Each structure stands twice: as C-alpha cells, then as structure tokens.
Amino acid sequence: MDLPVDEWKSYILQKWSLLPKSIQVTISTAEALSDIFLHSSLLLQPEDEMFLKRLSGGYLVGKDPGAPLFYREEGNKKFHEKDYMGATLLYSKGVAHSRPSTEDISLCYANRSAALFHLGQYETCLKDIVRAQSHGYPENLQPKMLLRKAECLVTLGRLQEASQTISDLESNFAATPTLAASQFQILQRTLCRLKRKVQEKETLTETFPALLTKALEDMELREENVHVRGASSSVSLRVDPLKGRSLVATKDILPGELLVKEDAFVSVLNPGEMPPRHEGLESKWDTRVTNGDLYCHRCLKPTLATVPCDGCSYAKYCSQECLQQAWDLYHSVECSLGGLLLTLGVFCHVALRSTLLARFEDVGKVRMTLCGETCNRDVSSPEGKNLAQALSYDLGGEREQRGKTVETSVPGCGIDGKYENNYNAVFHLLPHTENHSPEHKFLCALSVSALGRQLQAAGSQPFTAGLKSSKLEAAEAPVLYPEWNIWGVAMLRHMLQLQCNAQAITAIQQTGSKGSLITEHRQVRLATGLFPVVSLLNHSCSPNASVSFISTVATVRASQPIRKGQEVLHCYGPHESRMGVAERHQKLRSQYFFDCNCPPCEREKQRPSALEPRREAFCCHRCRALLQGDDVLSCGSTSCPASVRRHHLDSRLQDLQQQVGLARKLLRNCKAERAIQLLLGCQHDAESFLSAEHSVVGEIADDLAQAYAALGDWKKSASHLQKSLRVVEVRHGPSSVEMGHELFKLAQIFFNGLAIPEALNTIQRAEKVLLVHYGPWNDEIQELQKMKSCLMDSPAGKRSIELIIPTLLKHKSGCCELRWNHRHNSNCPGRTGTYGHPMLVWHFGHNMFK
Known about the structure:
5-stranded mixed β-sheet, 19 strands, SET_dom, about 50% helix, Serine Threonine Protein Phosphatase 5, Tetratricopeptide repeat, globular, disordered C terminus, single chain, S-adenosyl-L-methionine, transferase, 3-stranded antiparallel β-sheet, alpha+beta, zinc ion binding
C-alpha cells in the first residue's frame, strides 16, 4: 500500500541484482539525492515502462459505459432486500462510472436518493434529487421523485418549500397526465397524505434539538505560538545537536491541554483493498466497498453520497466544492494517472501531490530550494556558489548579505524565523538518505522516473501551470537540469521522508453481522498525510502527549503533566505497554533509524533478560506464583518445587488462542450461546497457567462480555468487562486512552442494564480520561453526556430518571446499539501506519435519542 505493488518491487529488485557492480556502487555511495535520481533514471528502459503500464492497466479507474447499469441493477437488488446502505454504496459506484449529463448518472442519483431517504438522510437525499434533475432526469419519472422531495422537506420542517413542491406536483399532474391509472392513484394518495402532514405540522410549534457537537473550527488553540504556526504558546521550538528539532514546554502543562492543531499539508486517501482485475473473471466490476467509496478524497470526511470526478471513476468527493478544490490543486494532473498511482503506492502519490501543492507557494524559493538540492555537489562552480548564496539567504542560512550577518535559523523556518505548515517546512523534513538501503532508493528513484516519463508523454506541464510567477521571473538561479529532473529529485526526497515522517490518519469502520445488538468496529488506516508541526515531536515509549485526527486535522494533547522545559513526546508505535524493549528497539531502528534511550527503555535494560514482564508471564498451576527461567521454568515460590518446559506452555498457549479465535467466529455468526460455552472453558484453562494480567486473559474476558451483551445479559457482561478492564489498567495505565475506551464500553453496559449508580460513576470516570486525550468535542464525550443527561438532572427536570426507566424497559434487548472494539494487543496504524500508537474513535448509537 505504501510502496509499489509486489510485482513492480520484485521486477525492480531483479533489475538491481543484474546491474554491473560498478553501477551499484555508484548509486549506493552517492550522497546527493540528485546523483541517486539521475543515475537511476538513466537506467529506466522502455521495456520497464511497458511492464509498469501492464500492471497499472489492471485497475479500473476510467469511466466504463457498461458499469452504471450493472451497479444500478445490483443496487436495486439490495434496495428490495431493504439493505439501503448496501444499495446506496452500489448506486454510488454507478454514479462514479457515469458520464456527466447522461441518463445513466441521473438514474443513479435518483435511485440513491430513494435509498438515502430510507436511511433518514433527508438533507443528502434532497441534494441527490437536485443532482438527478441537473443531469437530465427523465420527465416521465419526475413525479415520484418530487413526492420524495416533498416528504423530505416536510420531515425537515421546511414547510413552505414542501407546500410549493406539492403545488408544483398538482400542476404537473393536471398538465401532463402521462401516468397509468394505478400509478396515478398511488401518487395522488401520497400527495393527499403529505398535504395533511403539512397542515398538521403548521399547527405545531416546531422545536429542533440543539447540536450536541461543536464544529471542528470551534476547537481552537487558546493562544497560538508566534513562531510555530498551529502550535500553542505553551510550547517552543528547540534544536538539539543530537535529537534535532523538538517541542518543549514553556510553562507547566496540565493533562488535556491542546498543544498542536494542524491541518495536513498534504494527505492521500489509502485505497484499501483494491486488487487489480485479472483476465477471465466473470465480472470486471467489483461490488466490494473500499475506503474510496466511503470518504471524501480531499477532506476525508465520511460520506454516503459521493460526488465523482467527471474524468475518472476513482476520485470521489463529499461535495462539488471539494471536487473543484481538488481539481484546481492537484487532480487535474492526477486524473489520468489513477491506475499508475495505485500501482506505485501511496508514498509515490503523496510525493507527487506535495510537489504539485508547492506550485502555489513562493515559486522562486521553491525552485531555488530544489535547484539547491541538485547543485549541492558542485558549489565550487560560480553558478553553484551564487545559487548556494541565494538559497542560504532565502532559507535563513548563515551568510553575509550586504555587510550584514544573517543568523543560522532552524531548518524549515522562513526568513522571518517562523515555522509554518508550508512546503518549505515539508522539504526540510529529514529524508535519512544515508540510512535507506540502496535497493530501496533505487526502487523509489525508478518509480518517480516512470511517473515523470508518463507526465512528459502526456505533454503535461504540471509544475509550471498556474504558478504565481512574480518571484519566478526575478529568480536568477541557473537551470542546471531540465525542469522535470528538479521536481523528480524533490519527489524522491519526499518518498524517502515518508517512512519516518508520514502520519497515518485513522478512522473507525463497522464490521461483523447486521441486525445484531452488538456490532464490531475496527480501526483502519484511512489516509497518509504530512504534518510538518506534528513531525517535530520526538518519540518516547511512554509518551506524555497523544495525537488524534478529525478529518485531515491532527490534534496533539498533553496526556500527562508536562513541566516547564520538558520535551513534548508522543509514541511512534512501539509502546512499553505493548512490547518488550528488544522488540521496540528493533522496530524503531528498522523504521526510524534511531536507538531509543527513553526512561522506560533505560529501566528495562536493567532487568534480568530471563525475567518476563508480569503481564505476559506464565504462572504455577499449583500455587499461582510466577514461573521463572529460560527453557525450563521453575515456580517463583521457594516452597513450591513445580517446574515445566517453556515449549510445553507455548504450545498450550497457542492451542488456547486457536480456541478463542473459534469462539470469536461463532460470535460473529450470531451464535453467542455456543461462543460463551467455549469461552468459559478457555477462561478456566487460561487461569490455570497464565498470570492474571496476561493479555489473553483480558481478551477472553472482553469476548465473554461481548457475548453476554449480545444476549442482553447486562449483569454478566459487566462482570466480565470489569475483569477485562483490570487487565487493560495494568497494561496501559489508569489514565490511558485504552482505559478510557474500556470505561466507555462499561458505561454502555451499565446504562443498558439500568444500573444507574454504576453507570453514572463509570460515565464520570470515562469522561475524565477521554477528555484528556480528545477534548470536549469528541463523539464519545458527546455520547457519554447523552447518557448522563438521561440518568440525572437535565432540562427535563428531576423526573428524568423516572421517565427514562419505562422507556428503557420497552427495549427488552437494550436501548442502544453497542459498538464493540477489542482493546487488547492493539497494533493500530501509527506515524507511518506500521506500528502505531492507538488513536481510537468510538461511535455508539443510542436509538432512543434519534
């Protein structure tokens, strides 16, 4: 996903292995990215491009004239089965493949509006009705769609518009009686019902509930840093000779304080599972849903009713506004490259988009920065000296200018000393050129070269069209290489930067069976983005800050007290609660090229290597003391002679995990009773040889809680979930985000079980933890407040509890859909999506509040 597809990687690695040794040495020992790029790009042959073209041709990203009818018919099947969500997504695929201003696209929009109506998405339904009409929806089908429009308007309380639509319909019926008698009678009855509904509504005083969530723009920094755009005044930028740039506290910071709020400089939606088509398949049109069908490709907001690009079937947006912005900024160049970009991977796509966005900044500085990279190897020439001087002046380097000495500034800062979310800051993120393997650099360089050849073949001028040219004309920097080579070097730099600097933007998606009270959710990596300010944060295996995402915006909050002068740290993935020091060091060294010396690592280095952390330890089946040793484990109690071979316990643990996996499969298939029987046996077995804090013990308790909740046995569910919660607390800490989410689940269980005192207490505990990590405008916090308002004094008065109990009792299976996520052994996407710190979002739907 990040890097090119396996076929292209294997092809390039084989090509590398066949190169003469002298060429391998030249590329391997080159220090300048310009040398690596130029030497590699000269090796790209036409047959390589043909192979890549065949690979990219397997992705269906163009408009296919046969696809709209196929997807419309498949959507109709889902609609008749009352699977309106499935129907909506299939109609969206039909829309994506339709040409604008055709009957195909108008019919797909109209059908999607019907599915959206049944989903209660009335505003979005109205937008689709307008879209269908604007693309020439057939006149003879208009009445039924206009009735739907009137119904939406009535439901939304827009009665004047509804009355006008009804009036237009009556006029339409009188003027063009083209419908069959039976259809006409049905429509007339519906029309009469709507007219009565309007009259009834007009006699009522409509009240609409206040919004329970604040918009993203309301979540602002208390006081923005004058030197670091997007950071709080509570932190400052510092440069350390060993650790590089970092953020440090300028005052004592309390948990929960917002330290950074930054929109991504660039982000690219991860395509998800999009396997290329293969010849011989019965159908070339895929009905599976991917990230690209669920989220806007520009702002990453979730959307059911996507608006497609007019030129391709891949890019989809939440609105016409997002579509136009994406087209103006980058998609006009990317549109024809869809299959190639999917083949070359997300990192190559981010690299291209970064350089395309650079066009809209100070072009003189951008080109001099890029030229500086290509001529750094030859600053002895007069041109190189002049360019280096100009580059140094523009970027704040130490250089005498007109008799004045300019002080050396922090890399990435402008001449005014500010560090901003711009291309200059992105360019100065470290690429770690010397740490990447020669094969990896060769793969990236040839991928960029192939992309450039494709752009050149199309006659595209992507890096010069639409630029602000005032500084471009004034720039006197010599063009040492053709224009593309300059930008190719920049793209190679970005591809190498991304391994250490990209952030994985995550979202929660629903999985599991439909129609169940319990639906499982999983965290997915939604997109890859570059955040120059967030990238200033260094790593700790026990961080004092947490990073979360809303759409394309990253927020950093203090998760612990941070003293003045202390560095703000977050976790790149390997966390002390999830893996031992040896594994953490291996992962950090292989991906980020550094050895961690944070306090947890230093502490763990002092431990005897044979002693396992208690949370993953085996225990004695006789006395429950921890077992110690290497190949043969002995009881830690001096009075107990028990011993056992490690391989026997490892085998037993593996068998236990297989049984737990089987139980989960039963649970997903709505066979909760059988799952409980199997899990209770697993729990008994686990307690006989695993420590009470072992992750598997927590997993089994969590699974049992979910199974009992699926049956509506809230008391037993709460009992098992509390056991799971104790394991989470030991592994992650009482103030961790994982603990907050477990408390959130427990609050839901108590709420459904009418355990009012326990629910109120747990809600308070969950709020306290989650507020620190997410702030007050998070979905989970809003849901907790909804529950609390039902269980204690509210605008409805002190009778709220008396009123809520009969309401809850009507729902014998519970009053809310409980969305479940497992919190053990989390391995969520992180800084580059490989070993991330969990940044979790939970969504609970309370049916009684809707």
